[in-house]
Amino acid sequence: MTKPRILVTGGTGYIGSHTVVELQQAGYPVVIIDNLSNSNREVLDGIERITGTRPDFVEGDCTDIATLRQLFADYSDIKGIINFAASKAVGESVEKPLMYYRNNLDTLINLLDLMAPNGVEGIVFSSSCTVYGEPDINPVTENTPIKKATSPYGNTKQISEDIITDFIHSGAPVKSVILRYFNPVGAHPSSEIGELPNGVPNNLVPYLTQTAMGIRKELSVFGDDYDTPDGSCIRDFIDVVDLAKAHVTAIGRMLSGKSESAIEIFNLGTGRGVSVLELIDAFESATGVKVPHRIAPRRAGDIEKVWADPTRANTILGWKADTPIADTMLNAWHWQQRLRQRGIM
Ligand code: WQD
Fold it and tell me: Whole-prediction pTM value?
């Protein structure tokens, strides 16, 4: 039985591209739409080198409903959507809130509006643990209270979840799985795709690997005076391939009618809290490469500690993030080395 076609918005991005690889390897035909605002076409070459199949690609902006109408007309066999297309830099969202609200919310509203008229049955939404803010208790479950967002970016994720809920509760004949990511890190073991942020990385691991490569002089550890064992912040760092696999499981569950309700929410994390300093140690031990770093002042807006209770995803989705952090760090380092070999950085 052939698998239904999946539309992956933002599919040339970091998590999107890894998910396209896993979808193709699970037998799903894929079409990507991406405006290439934070990625490039070469990612399609990397996906093809891994899977042997070049995904269909439409360069376009999901905030333009005419573009999406045309896409659904051209691909009338789309049965599911995985929506990654969104701006996602916390700091940038504080400087450009309207761009974040317009891009992230118009994209989602357009997709939801076009699903039923085009026979699309379900949408997987890329959400984030940022909806929990600074949790009072860790690990965090799906029932942990949502706290007021601390950035426009985080607010777009909270509002998006509300839009999906209200739309489906209005009787729309579609289903949704909302996936709340913790901290995605690493790269594909083939080193053909990985994280490639524009400019100076905001996130820890790309900054760490660029420092290890000598591109950055020194990694600043933003604070070691937090209420944690070693004073640095704690996160739940989840391997990007494990994360991608969860999307394949979720879309398969939804489109095969196994969902227990029209909307399901899952935390996607390892269940293990790892501190910033512990992650640096894990990288150095796994690769043998030293990372020059120093303690710097705290970064405004940082959460002190947050990690997942992934029990629901483990038991209901039947999915588990089990890549050892050492392997994830090695994959991240090999990707950085590949970028150097290809003269990219
Ligand atoms: C992790 C830890 C920093 C850089 C955000 C979003 C989340 C998701 C991932 C999009 C923090 C410390 C970082 C550095 C450091 N966004 N750090 N030096 O802030 O947990 O999560 O990005 O998908 O929704 O909220 O990720 O990697 O920026 O920071 O010490 O140069 O590393 O202080 O404690 P964050 P991060």
Answer: 0.97
